[in-house]
Design brief:
The protein has 10 helices and 14 strands. The protein has a 7-stranded mixed β-sheet. The protein has a 4-stranded antiparallel β-sheet with strand order 2-3-1-4.
Amino acid sequence: MARLYPALACRWPASPPAAELDRLIALLDDHSPTAVEETSDGLRVFFATAPARDRALAAAAAFDPVVTAAAIDVSDEDWAERSQSSLEPIQVGRFIIVPRKDIGSRFPQGSTGKTTPDVLFTLFILPSMGFGTGHHASTRLCLRLLQARPLIGASVLDVGTGSGVLAIAARKLGAAVVIATDIDRDALQSAQDNLDLNQERGVRLEEIDLAAAPAELGRRFDVVLANLTGAVLMRQAEALAALAEPGGSLIASGFQPHEAGEVVSALDRAGWSLASRLDEQEWVGAAFEARAAATSPRHSTTR
């Protein structure tokens, strides 16, 4: 029997501009959505629980009087089938991200560790209730910034892995150790499905809250990936710093230009120095360098 997922159907009277959709997505991100689907007249936003969906409904209702928001339940099988029929392959640098199984033979499959510029790596990422097919700007920004880092032999932590796309990409680029964490078991199952689809056995999945990760993982990483939200990045800046080797890197996205100043300031106070920034479709991605080893952060709770 197909599982039903709580969701919001947000509709505009006319097709809304992309910037308007992004603003609503950013607003609802504080309520921990698990997936977002664009429709012909707006958005469907999915949540892990009905109470989280209902809290988001109140926020969506106050967003704009022209937007109609309604609570719905969507079959997982129906959502995946429609998503797979509508999403097309997308290229981000040296990665081709294929969102459907049946067209995989049309694309070359790269090999882990080969880093010559002419190699294209194909990632098969199935639409699911976890974020990260590569069709959202924040995922693309992280992929672009990841490709600018030397990863051969590196250790990488992907915080809030969702579909696992960034963790798989890190392995393709030569990372020796890759650990991917999430607090959503459905997201971790989605990530495992994609690891299996890509025949990738070099990524370890862990159900760990970001605040507890420094203690539970017991190690530091050369590169930390954090495609989260501006609020979470600010709240967990110290935890992220505690996860990085001295001189290590942080690649962060999931926040918008109006949040960038506060996000950069919070990370700077935690010991991160801004190295580069990319902007795409009202979203920001940034790379940071760790100035020094951080002390263990005070305990707090992620979204």
